[in-house]
Amino acid sequence: MASSEEHTVLARPEFDKPVKVLIVVSPYYSDIAHGLLTGAKAELSAAGADFEVVEMPGALEIPTAIGISDRRSNFDGYVALGCVIRGETTHYETVCNDSSRALQLLGLQGLCIGNGILTVENKKQAEVRADPEGQNKGGGAAAAALHLIALARKWAHTSKGIGFKPRGEDTLMAGDTDGSKIA
Ligand SMILES: Nc1c(NC[C@H](O)[C@H](O)[C@H](O)CO)[nH]c(=O)[nH]c1=O
Ligand SMILES: CC(=O)[C@@H](O)COP(=O)(O)O
Predict the structure, then answer these.
(1) 117-162 confidence digits (pLDDT tens)
(2) Where are the domains of the chain?
(3) Which CA distances in Å does 17 have to 24, 45, 153?
(4) Tens of pLDDT along 65-86?
(5) Ligand 2 within 6 A of 58 CB?
(6) Model pTM?
(7) Per the annotation, does 62 bind a ligand?
(8) Which superfamily is assigned to 18-157 in CATH?
(9) Nearest C-alpha to atom 5 of ligand 2 is from which residue?
């Protein structure tokens, strides 16, 4: 089956300065969340990254939680962990699509986010994907965040000089109301 085929995994990035990552996890399916979290923590620890963990009720709250955290803290990156299992109604599509799209939009704003929100047909599919000894999607999401952080740091002191300003305390972000922060 295509889903069990091996894929290429990039070498773990190395950092010369501390890295601080926020894991935002929904325990909606707690056993699945536990597996994802175990894999993500192991990957971050192997890279020497520090991390904190916060919980949100469901996958839909995860992007909002990351957006709030990014405006009010100093994390280098984020790992989103959760699981959405198809039910009887169309709500599955809403939770899957909106959480994924919102994470991508945050990413396009410059946030370094690994998406480890499983979107599956049944619990069995989730179990093999969450298992740190199996597909280890939590570890994969943490690795994705680390690669984005490494890229952001690689270009940290580079600019085309055409008015682009890296995100920072003096950069106006969506939701900011302080006019003095306008970049
Ligand atoms: N059905 C699943 C949900 N639904 C809950 C939403 O994420 C959200 O918390 C609620 O609509 C309140 O805003 N969440 C999951 O993480 N997984 C599901 O399968
Ligand atoms: C992904 C969901 O929100 C899903 O679990 C909801 O189930 P249902 O469509 O049966 O209400």
Answers:
(1) 999 999 999 999 999 999 999 999 999 999 999 999 999 988 776 6
(2) 18-157
(3) 23, 14, 10
(4) 999 999 999 999 999 999 999 9
(5) no
(6) 0.88
(7) no
(8) Lumazine/riboflavin synthase (3.40.50.960)
(9) 87
